[in-house]
Amino acid sequence: MEIDFRLAQDDDFPAIASLLSVGNNPYGWSERKLRYYYREYTEASTIASVAMHEGGTAVGFYGAQGVRVGEYFVISGAHAMVDPEYRGHHLWGTVLEVLCEEGRRLGAKFLMGYANPRFTMAIVNRYGYILTGYAHFVDVDEVDYSPYRERLRFNYSDAWYEWKFGFLADYYLKEYDRGQQTYLQLHKARIDKVVAPPGRRLNLWHPAAYSREDPGIWSQSVAIKPLVDGLDQEIFDIHNWQFDMADNDSIEFREWT
Q1: Architecture of domain 3-108
Q2: pTM for this predicted structure
Q3: Cα(125)–Cα(151) distance, rounded to whole angstroms?
């Protein structure tokens, strides 16, 4: 089995789109969408690492986007996939290492990772990630971010907000169906205080509801893979962060068909 592990080129995008579309393709993957995320991103460099079979088929992929976090330049993991037929062969670890090497070359200090709890523990145990904790999905009538603005957070330009959401606004809401319930999710806020519309509640990752341990409820785990030595240990404690749902590209605002 000849597999080429390398940085993706533009002419790899059709094959990568096919890989990401395995199943029912709920996220609307296409060559156009890949170009949008990895060639039209506004903030900094992007990295797309791919495992290509000798026949021209993509069998593994991991993409990340550069962003500033306070004094740090970091890369934030966005999209990952291994062909089901190739799982269990440690293929993803090599795809990850190609991405990390390029991140180091670009000057990134660490890699952010968002995954489901089961996969999070796998990357912590096998690939050198450190679990910072869990951001709980909570429902509130209003949120005031002012007590948390000194925490570590992703710093975006106005151009990013237009790229991500398609327009500039004080905050961004989107309905999300989970089971039999519809939530009004707060994906991002550019102001300190957001109040829910009449008769609704906001669903968000509230900074007051982070935990170091798995809460056993609906939550998002956050892990960090250091790319250099000597990082401040505050980075690895979720209570020193303030995350928004839109920081994680598995939670999308724009519709792709």
Answers
A1: 3-Layer(aba) Sandwich (3.40)
A2: 0.93
A3: 27
